[in-house]
Amino acid sequence: METIHGKLVSVLSCLCAAWIVIVCIVSGHYSQSIKLLPAEPGNSAAMSELQAKVTASHEIRAVFSSQPPAIYFNRLRNNTFFRKIKKPRRYQGLEEGLARARASIRKAFSSLNQSSAIDGEDNNEVLTGDVYRNPGAFYQSYVEMEKRLKVYVYEEGEVPIMHDGPCKDIYTIEGRFIHEIEHGGGGGKFRTRDPQLAHVYFMPFSVTWMVKYLYKPLSYNLSPLRQFVSDYVSFISTKHPFWNTTQGADHFMLACHDWGPHASRGHPVLYNTSIRVLCNANTSEGFNPQRDVSLPEIHLYGGNLNPKLLSPPPPTTPRPFLAFFAGGLHGPIRPILLNHWMGRDPDLPVFEYLPKEMDYYSLMLQSKYCLCPSGHEVASPRIVEAIYSECVPVILSHHYVLPFSDVLKWEAFSVMVEVSEIPRLKEVLTAVSEEKYKRLKEGVRAVRKHFELNQPAKRFDVFHMILHSVWLRRINLRLG
Predict the structure, then answer these.
(1) What is the mean pLDDT of residues 219-243?
(2) Measuring CA to CA, how many Å separate 14 from each of 8, 18, 19, 28?
């Protein structure tokens, strides 16, 4: 009898277990629990699943379009992923603060969209509306950033590749940002030593120094760069919990070297999920303007701005040349420009190599427009040099996302010319009315402060504009 009873109990137990499994499968709980497992960096199927899950999740309303009907839902992968995982308790306070920031910015969008100027904390900080997509929303977003944003800088690693970068060449911005966020007065108010309080986490490696110390010249083998990034992310994700909590979505890297995007491929989750701040902002090579940040390329010879650019001549000073360019013959666009215009027209001086008796910056200061064609990669330091010279930039590029275009209306202070229109370049530029040219030049003067490097950093300068771009991605909003 006991044997029969025991068998009956065993059979009933099996039936109950089977029923539980069937219910879980029918309800989708079992399959969903599998989907929420973190993706392994080397597993392409898992990465595809992560991508699909992130982009399909619920969206956050963006608020900074120049026209109210253009408000749209933004699909930033970094923040939407936060909503697909169980957040630690520490995130609750951070997210509540970000929610208040979003509400404040939305209010500014509604009440100040039509305003022409927003006064800053002193009389020198006035944001005129012509060059901004929405000056009121931008100013409020900037103030919220100053009040709330905290950046944790990972302390692991040694110089020169970590915690250092170039400060005296074409990739100056890379080293200057690292130094400012770690040691500068401007970065000090944003940096936190407590990672529990951070909104974003900065990985302070220098791709330029990787190229200098790890790359074998002329080998064109970039695997040492990718391996370094892979090892670094593996190390911080093992030592700290923060990367794994969000799959790196609240982490950012910064690189001005042309090979920055290639180095980021060393870790597929970084490449696909983290915020990449890059000079080489080429959408045809994987740059995602909703998640990544376009970084201006600033060339400081010897670490300092050329004295001629510190104080450009008064706006009424004549500029005898229509447009100017001098630069090496590389990339697909410059050969077209030089083929059509080098030595062809005295109003439009175009050189491959500038004669020794001529001065590069003097010619910029004497020209109404400065031609800024892409080279091997899309970014060019000439754009910032043109702004310093109060020479209206002429953008000649494919697939280039211009810096700070979330908040700046580049059409208000530059001229975009299709590469196919290069043969008609003089006709295109002379067709710009004198009144419009004056407005463009005023726009150039208005945005100059956003491209200046200061020590220590000042409000609204390039250091703060970079941080603001990261801040926008963190709160999942876009200006425009």
Answers:
(1) 97
(2) 10, 6, 9, 21
